[in-house]
Amino acid sequence: MFYRLKTDFRLSIITLLGASAILGITPFAVYRFLQGNLLAAVVDVVILAGIVGSVACAWVTGRTKRSGLFLAVMTSSSAVVVGALTGEPGLFWLFPCLVTSFFLASPRLAILINLSAISAMMAQTEIFRSLVQMWSFAAGAVVVSASAYVFAFRNESQRERLEHLATIDPLTGVRNRRSMDQELAWAVANADRSGGVYSIALLDIDHFKQINDRYGHGVGDSVLVEMVALIQQHTRRTDRLFRYGGEEFVLLLPDTCDEGLKTVLNNLQQVLRKYLRHPGGTVTASFGVAQLIKREDVDAWLGRADAALYQAKESGRDCIIYAQAPSEHTEKAASRAEYSLT
Ligand SMILES: Nc1nc2c(ncn2[C@@H]2O[C@H](COP(=O)(O)OP(=O)(O)OP(=O)(O)O)[C@@H](O)[C@H]2O)c(=O)[nH]1
């Protein structure tokens, strides 16, 4: 639960606003009920039910955009209804709604929601004591909306920038290891749930240290950037490339059968041999490949790919080694043991 609150910004906003609204509105619902103002009390209860419903929907379905929009529309229109029923209190309730709509919905929709709520409130002229009060309310509401827009816009762009810095490798522009950990964990969970087929290829440039030592780190960096561009050009949009560290990359290939996997990786090997160059010649890479097997965790999956890569390096580099499933491996070892006993 805390993990979802930490990683899903909109969900955390919906939960926080929902909890604040419940704490703020419940005493009024009770008070109005005790006062005998049943209609207003029922409206408060309906508002509370709507808020609880949209927060619950965001948690259960994960569709936070829809729930956020629903919450923004519902709270603003509730303030207008409260204005119609009780007069001035509706004006005060509208102000927090004008601010929060920018955190719940997209800026355009939030502007639309706010302008509609302000106009609907102004249309009920009997709420205001004078024209001056009405226009003061309108001016105040527009200023609050504009300030909330600027704040929400800056907050969103800084959040996007932080997310980019935290997940993207600055040199090559591909996702980093932190991002890889999340996606591999998601792939394992998805395979367990719906039986999806996932494979990873661990790629490591051969003798990269020599390139750095002979031609300098600038040339080494360009080789890394070029390799990423070549891999991205020759794989599917749904395949994901991550920088694992140094000159090592992980390519995650979803929904790729054994034959397809071999075709893609053989082609990638040819492409790198042909087009990846440093000033003294061609650059090659070694591949360790592992298909996710049932009930395997991320560490075991990566471990098998890593062992296959090690084998590729040991076999002279510039080759692709496919990891065996542990059971296959054990069965073969067992049959070899049986054979040597007979
Ligand atoms: N230019 C550059 N070099 C890097 C970067 N990250 C790691 N390296 C270098 O990559 C080299 C990796 O060397 P090794 O681990 O010995 O691997 P290798 O020389 O490719 O040897 P094999 O993998 O066995 O073929 C080291 O010299 C690191 O300094 C980077 O971002 N840019």
TrEMBL record:
PROSITE patterns, sorted? GGDEF
- Segments spanning the bilayer are 12-33, 39-61, 68-85, 91-113, 134-153
Can the keyword Manganese be found in this entry's annotation? no
Q: Which GO terms describe its molecular function?
A: diguanylate cyclase activity
* Reactions catalysed: 2 GTP = 3',3'-c-di-GMP + 2 diphosphate
Classification via InterPro entries: Diguanylate_Cyclase (IPR050469), GGDEF_dom (IPR000160), Nucleotide_cyclase (IPR029787), Rev_trsase/Diguanyl_cyclase (IPR043128)
* One family name in Pfam for this protein: GGDEF
Name the domain of life this protein comes from.
Bacteria
EC number(s) of the enzyme? Answer: 2.7.7.65
Cofactor(s), names only, from the UniProt record: Mg(2+)
Domain called GGDEF: residue spans: 196-325
Gene3D superfamilies named among the record's database cross-references = 3.30.70.270
Concerning PANTHER family, the annotation shows: DIGUANYLATE CYCLASE DGCM-RELATED (PTHR45138:SF9), REGULATORY COMPONENTS OF SENSORY TRANSDUCTION SYSTEM (PTHR45138)
Give the protein's recorded name: diguanylate cyclase
Q: Specify the taxonomic lineage.
A: Bacteria, Pseudomonadati, Pseudomonadota, Gammaproteobacteria, Pseudomonadales
